[in-house]
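Section: Multi-chain targets

For targets with more than one molecule, the full set of components is provided together so that the structure can be written out for the assembly as a whole rather than chain by chain. Components appear in the order listed by the source. The example entry contains two components.
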Amino acid sequence: MEYFVQQLINGLTLGSIYGLIAIGYTMVYGIIGMINFAHGDIFMIGAFVALIALIAIGLTAGAGLVIVILALLLALLIAMALTAIYGWTVERFAYRPLRTSFRLAPLITAIGMSIVLQNFVQVTQGARVKPLQPIVTGGYEIMRTTTEHGEFIVLVSNIQILIILTTVLLMAVFALIIARTPLGRAQRACEQDRTMAALLGINVDRTISLTFVIGAALASVAGLMYLLYYGVIDFFIGFVAGIKAFTAAVLGGIGSLPGAMLGGLIIGLIETFWSAYFTIEYKDVAAFSILVVVLIFMPSGLLGRPEVEKV
Amino acid sequence: MAAGPAPALAAAPAHSLRAGIIDALIAAFIALAIAAPIIGLRTVSLEGGLALTTRWGAVAIAVAVVFAGRLALTLLWWPRHKPARRDSAGRRLLARARDSGLAERAMLLLAPALLIFAIALPATPFADRYVLDIGILVLTYIMLGWGLNIVVGLAGLLDLGYVAFYAVGAYSYALLATHFGLSFWICLPLAGFLAAMWGLILGFPVLRLRGDYLAIVTLAFGEIIRIVLLNWYDLTNGPDGISRIPRPSFFGLEFDRGEGGFAAFFGIGYSSDHRIVFLYYLILALALLTNFVTLRLRRLPVGRAWEALREDEIACRSLGINTTATKLTAFATGAMFGGFAGSFFATRQGFISPESFVFLESALVLAIVVLGGLGSQIGVVIAALVMIGGFELFREFEQYRMLVFGFAIVLIMVWRPRGIIASRTPSIFLKERKSIGAESVGEGRG
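Its structure, encoded as tokens over all components, is:
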């Protein structure tokens, strides 16, 4: 039981990170119907910018709580702003010229951009892994039992609390943006019918650009969380995380925002529980298998709208 | 990076110098924001953790390049090339028709020329071992591209996990040859058969899925197969891979110095190049077989059903075409050729490991198919020559070549969104064969 609770907490933390990345996939897919393969690498860029910002700020280990919080916030803002520019540029450079082109063309440029971003970071920052000293430490003990093997303590670390809280907060803000603001309305309009939205005076290009900006900013938050949680990043983290997050988006029903979050949590939980109770080597196989099984029985994901076939 | 050849930012008249400079300044500013953290600040490992070193010179160069490039684009390139874009639709159609007419005529000559070149290459004086190795590599990708073209180009099913079949073929040959001592010529059809079976197995569950759901499931299958190969240590030897895979023989004659070897049998001096030349012709023959079968299949009912499926699945179903069987045959046929290519890869390398079958390979083959022009056989050849051959040319710039490679994919796609060969010759025609613009051909929707 205690072991289960501990894994549940770990799984929710991982799922939150996946969910934040998955939103970028699902939003872009909803609005222009393309798989943004470079999004995982945007997440990686976010992690790197956050790492560089944290080192530049020069946080020392013994800093007080207020200073740590301020430094993290500053790093977060820098990472969000700069990663958003990356997201905007990728869209402007590789996707917008192909807006009216056929469906596979932006998919291929997305794969191209993914290769570019990965190798850009590899060339400029080196291929070695980048470790970061733990910044957020400590935690709370929520359960303790004594078994024949010794004591088992269920811990919630501060960083886990931070990740889950930030995710919940960002999701709330994000849901509010989509539901209430003119930008959110424009996004939903573009999602339904781009031509009609343009006829009604919505700047479609601007809306799509902002979608990429928001997606990249959320991915950079995920990048910072990943950096703080695992304490080590390299130029290749975007690939695996990106595929998992995309799987999460498809699992939840691509185009659906709550679906992305739900899918992220499910993938995170499956991975964690599979590693905990079975073999760690096959955790990705487990996640992908669940995806296949779900799609066989629910071809448009858990919360996705069924596709209407028009003649 | 900010300078893309799209018209939107240049809303101001592109001819005016002032507007051009302002536009270029904006681009340069964005380049600064992008370059400053990642290029300007490099993380280096010190004893106490990570520290930063600065490289502002490189940032300045990057920003200056973007500024100059953007300015040159707005002032010199676009004023000359943009008017063509703003032509009336009718003119564009005419221009396209002229283009495709030319392309068609060029293609008629190009294909035999390339074939003759490919056959004659080993006999030419500059064909050393290095050139032949590159030739083998390019031909392998051409074969994979042609195989995937059946699935993506003809049947319109987006497959992001094609490398799985390549891996199945390679491991089938490697395992059959090392455990049971079967020769290459027995294993080759077996590997193709096994890969086709895997195509069927993977095809079944995904038949109900459409479009991008199919894409992600094929991607997932590709990853699953790779992970299983990586971790099933008893069978596949895990990350260490399988080594000492037997080389192919020339109808039973080994390429060695011994008595019964190839060189001794034909009474010529032994040379290690014989095997390379043989491998070259082997992959050429396999690739041509793929091409030939594809071209013939296109004229059979099943091939027509594939193309009909790509154009409109609902119309297909209402005309009584069994879409399930049609999709499965496309999947299995494509997989079979992937399997052939895989077993060739295994016998050429003599060593395989899961590292060779990563997603990037699938992406690369798909990029070759789409860059060449979906469904175009000669397009695949050109794209593979440009991408793989070009990639080899940059060998000295080991670090930067993947970066250049990624940019090349993006730029070619933006330059020719329909692929390099953007016209199609219909499979069925009345009286006269006319090539049509690719715009009027359907694409992979799944």
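Chain A has eleven helices and four strands.
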